[in-house]
Every structure is written in C-alpha cells, then in structure tokens.
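Slide 14.
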Amino acid sequence: GTGPLQTGDIVKIRKGITKPRYDWGKISPSDIGVLEKIDAQGKVRVLFKNSIHWRGVVSEIEQIESNSTEIKITASSGDPTPLLDLSMNYWESDGERGCHWILLELLEPATVFKAFEICLVDLNNLSFLPKTVEIFLGLKASEMIEISQTAITHYGWTALIPKISGEFKFIRLNITECHENGKNC
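Slide 15: predicted structure.
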C-alpha cells in the first residue's frame, strides 16, 4: 500500500492469510474490493463483488494500486465525479424515465478493456435502482455502437462490459429503465 488505509481504497486480502477472523464468506484470496468502513477497533467492511458487506480486520487487508487510465466523466444531470473517486459517495440523476446517461471519456484510447463493473448500494428504495442499461463504445462520442444491454437484478457489483478488444475512447451508459417504474436513479 501507499500509506494508512482509508475509506474508498481498493483492497485485497493480504498474502498469507489462511483464515480471516470472520471467515472467507463468499470471497476468495484473489478478490479485489473497495474499503467501505474502518472502525476505531480496526474492524473493516469491504465491498467485494461476491460479498457486498464482507467483515474483517485491518491487518487482513492491503491496498492495491489502481492501474486505470485517466477518465473524464459527464452525465445527464447531477455531479457524476463521485463515480470515479472510489469513495462511498454517490451519483443521483433526476429527470424523466429513459433520459439518464453517463459518458466516460478515456484520455488515452484503450485497445483492451478487462471489465467494467459498477457497485449499486441499497437505498431502501428500489425505484432508484437501474433495471436496464445500454452500453455503447466508440472512438468518437457522436459515433458509438451499442455493444450490450444489461439487466440489473440486484444491489452490489454488476458487470456491464465483459473483456473486449478493439480501440475505443468513449463509453456511454444509457439507463433506460429503473425498477418499480422509477424515474430517478
């Protein structure tokens, strides 16, 4: 790591940990997550893909360096910057159904994209949870092609884009529908 752990850090289980204090649950030693909480006693809560509220202690995890490229982000409404800072902040978009979108611009074009995932947290209101997301890629924002449409069925980590190859610079997510006929997300 690069210093004391902080909420929002990308973490993994330290090498050599054979049995975490509160057990493995649904995670494995190679899983990567986002540190959600550290309390005064050194207990932690981590958002892993397969366990959105994994519990452990600070000595069992370590920060890993992000190898992501720089990204510029815009959205249909609201301030989307919390989507990139890995904090426990959030983005919310107000408006009519089907008008919500997020546009990511990679400052250097990518040729291989390992994966693109989002973590949706429980808001105690399903109407804010996206139900259908269309994903577009392209070298120009005005010339993108739809590569997939994803149905989101649960809170936690959801893969939106699988591993793909081909040069692109823009990723657009169109949130076309929310659960319970919600209009904001």
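Speaker note: The two ends are 34 Å apart (CA to CA).
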